[in-house]
Write a structure and sequence with these properties.
Layout (H helix, E strand, L loop, with lengths): L2 H29 L6 E6 L2 E2 L3 E4 L2 E3 L1 H12 L3 E6 L5 H6 L5 E7 L2 H6 L1 E2 L4 E10 L16 E3 L4 H9 L5 E3 L4 H9 L5 E5 H11 L3 E17 L4 H16 L2 H10 L9
Parallel strand pairs: 1-5, 1-6, 9-10, 9-11
Antiparallel strand pairs: 2-3, 3-4, 6-12, 7-12, 8-11, 8-12
Helix pairs in contact: 2-8, 2-9
């Protein structure tokens, strides 16, 4: 083979190799999708039907709201559990992106974290055993044993209404406190009004709410103060799921009505 012919042949082979390499690269680009950013949100996992584990899977209203928000933000949802007593510190230590676990907005918490717009409103309510005719209002709680979940607004209220020694902390969650109330181990429990009423209707517990709400509480999503952009994104996503009916659908699934329409 002459030198000129050989050079042409080698050049043609080189062009084919380059073309094949280009096709392979384009194919890889077409098949590989960019990695979706995760939205990691934490909750106690002890607050049925808001967030709890069933068959070792985390589920509930809070979990599904987080999934809906993540979809609007084009992020991958990842709900995790974290002890409620240290959950704010966990957020500040950047162990997760947000607390989406029915957290009440308080002035003290606002010093440590930022909050989104409320994603539902409820209130703090006193519950007693159905056979109890002695406790009719908060004034009757002096000297009584009150069950609460620690590090909550309910614990703070209980300490204002009875001696601190009579405040029984239930780290296992509100449902455990209400079960002890039903069996007479404590005199009263202060808990979220919606949660307590669900325990009455779905848990068949011998408990009842008394008097009016101790206070109306805004429940919002807590965000690290360093992450202002995420707060804006979640607020926008929240507006969108309310506007398109997704929020109402999730709420009615878990409670039978739209929590956004609740008036306390």
């Amino acid at each position: 083979m002459k030198q000129k012919t050989m050079n042409r042949y080698l050049a043609a082979v080189l062009l084919v190799i380059i073309a094949l390499a280009g096709c392979s690269s384009k194919k890889e680009e077409a098949t590989s999708e960019p990695k979706q950013e995760e939205f990691v949100y934490a909750m106690s996992g002890l607050f049925k039907p808001f967030n709890y584990k069933e068959d070792d899977k985390l589920t509930g209203f809070d979990v599904e709201i987080g999934e809906a928000l993540a979809e609007k933000m084009d992020m991958k949802p990842n709900a995790i559990t974290f002890p409620f007593e240290t959950i704010i510190q966990g957020l500040r230590d950047e162990k997760f992106d947000a607390i989406l676990g029915s957290m009440t907005v308080t002035e003290e918490r606002q010093k440590a974290v930022d909050f989104t717009n409320p994603y539902y409103k409820s209130g703090s309510r006193i519950f007693v055993n159905t056979d109890n005719t002695e406790i009719k209002s908060k004034e009757d709680l002096k000297g009584k044993k009150i069950g609460v979940t620690p590090a909550t607004i309910y614990e703070k209220l209980a300490k204002e209404l009875t001696e601190e020694a009579n405040v029984m902390a239930y780290s296992q969650g509100d449902m455990t406190a209400l079960m002890d109330l039903a069996t007479g181990r404590v005199d009263a429990v202060i808990v979220d009004d919606i949660f307590g009423k669900v325990a009455v209707t779905q848990g068949n517990l011998k408990i009842k709410p008394i008097d009016k709400l101790l206070q109306v509480d805004n429940q919002a999503i807590a965000i690290n103060k360093k992450d202002k952009e995420l707060t804006v994104k979640i607020n926008k996503a929240l507006e969108e799921i309310i506007a398109d009916g997704t929020y109402a659908e999730i709420s009615k699934k878990w409670f039978g009505y739209d929590l956004m329409e609740t008036e306390n």
